[in-house]
Design a protein that fits this description.
Distance between the termini: 87 Å
Structural class: alpha/beta
Largest sheet: 6 strands, parallel
Number of strands: 6
Strand order of the largest sheet: 1-6-5-2-4-3
CATH class of the domain at 218-372: Alpha Beta
């Protein structure tokens, strides 16, 4: 470009030289000056350890809490209290146990501060409990009637740890309230003391009260909830396998889930049950068409072929009602029936089917209700019910539990 072009702002059109790519082997990476290697906890001083109590890394924090528990340094007590109030780590509470009565003064001061509420106040009760000091009993007792059930349950736990069985009595009282949160917290806390006869008796009484609801379900009806033990279990595959293993000639599968399966999951059943004549009844079909599908499956069973109907059927109380189809067919072979009611939304739906089988079906018929409940947060089962189920070891008691759970739907 000439002198005048440069003087009046002309652009240099000469392209820049191509950028050179640096091969990986020639690249150098300088260390990040902000990164500082953390030495192993065994090499840290008490001061360094207490600084690490504020880390958001729970693995490092727990290792630090364990180490401070081993060292037993007096200067670490208050940092450990603060760490426990902030994070609630079990390792921090265990490390605090060694300080015994030295915890009393700090814990009392914290309890007197009315701004310490909720989880923080509940953890203050835990600190008082591990102190083992009778001098905190009065403070703990005043929190037994705290409005927040979390604080009440931890105060009751602290009282029990300090040797006062009124703590167990308070938990038993909350276990019998209509407040589901208070019941769940009381049950969970009683687990910590199930080695004590009073706590074990309270838990057993609560189980018995729950299992008593099982009597609402007729004895001939079996109830299962396989996804409580296996939350990811596919119910359609489970039912397909149950049909495959069944000795019955005719299987009928109805309920909320099967209504969807009849449209979207046919392939699962056809692939798993090549020797079973499959019939499906969808919501798009008229009630008369759904009844005709059941009749076709019934006729196949009476002809000696294994058959199954999956989907939606009119209830005996609907209009038009489900007719008396499950009867011997003239000239046909004897057949037996198995009825699955999967994931019922109302207890009354089950009752309608039970009465239909009892009053109108003149064939050997087994009835099984399959609940789709899995775990709290992803199904209708509550945390309290989930915990109760896993308390039971006897299969017969678990079967009774699922019957009680159905009665509560």
């Amino acid at each position: 470009m000439g002198f005048l072009g440069k003087l009046f702002g002309g652009k240099d059109k000469t392209p820049p030289p191509p950028a050179r790519r640096v091969p990986p082997e020639e690249r150098s990476f300088a260390p990040d000056p902000r990164h500082v290697e953390t030495p192993p906890v065994e090499e840290m001083s008490v001061k360094e350890l207490t600084r690490q109590l504020g880390t958001g890394n729970s693995t490092i924090r727990e290792a630090v809490e364990v180490r401070l528990g081993q060292l037993g340094d007096r200067t670490a007590m208050r940092p450990l209290i603060n760490a426990y109030l902030m994070h609630g780590d079990a390792a921090a509470l265990e490390a605090l146990r060694q300080y015994g009565g030295d915890l009393t003064g700090a814990a009392r001061t914290l309890a007197d501060d009315v701004s310490n509420e909720g989880e923080r106040r509940a953890r203050i009760m835990d600190v008082m409990g591990v102190s083992g000091d009778d001098d905190v009993l009065n403070v703990v007792r005043t929190n037994l009637d705290y409005p927040d059930p979390l604080v009440r349950s931890r105060a009751a736990a602290a009282l029990a740890r300090l040797g006062d069985m009124n703590g167990i009595s308070r938990l038993d009282y909350d276990l019998q309230t209509n407040d589901p949160i208070a019941r769940r917290l009381a049950l969970h806390t009683l687990h910590e003391f199930e080695h004590l006869p009073a706590a074990a008796e309270s838990i057993q009484d609560h189980l018995d009260r729950f299992l008593g609801d099982a009597s609402a379900v007729p004895a001939r009806v079996s109830v299962t909830a396989p996804r409580i033990a296996e939350p990811t279990l596919s119910l359609s595959k489970y039912v397909a396998n149950e049909i495959k293993e069944s000795a019955h000639t005719l299987t009928i599968v109805v309920g909320a889930e099967p209504t969807n399966w009849a449209t979207a999951r046919r392939g699962v059943f056809e692939e798993a049950l090549p020797d079973v004549e499959m019939h499906f009844a969808t919501p798009r079909m008229l009630p008369e068409e759904q009844i005709a599908a059941l009749e076709a499956a019934r006729n196949a069973a009476a002809a000696g072929r294994r058959a199954a109907l999956i989907g939606m059927l009119p209830l005996p109380s609907d209009e038009p009602p489900l007719p008396n189809l499950l009867v011997p067919v003239e000239g046909g072979k004897p057949y037996t029936v198995r009825l699955f009611i999967v994931d019922p939304h109302e207890f009354s739906q089950c009752q309608t089917w039970w009465f239909y089988i009892q009053d109108r079906v003149d064939l050997p018929t087994d009835i099984e209700v399959i609940l789709a409940v899995s775990k709290p947060g992803s199904s209708v089962i509550s945390e309290e019910e989930f915990e109760l189920y896993h308390l039971l070891k006897d299969p017969a008691k678990k079967a009774q539990f699922t019957r009680a759970l159905l009665a509560r739907i």
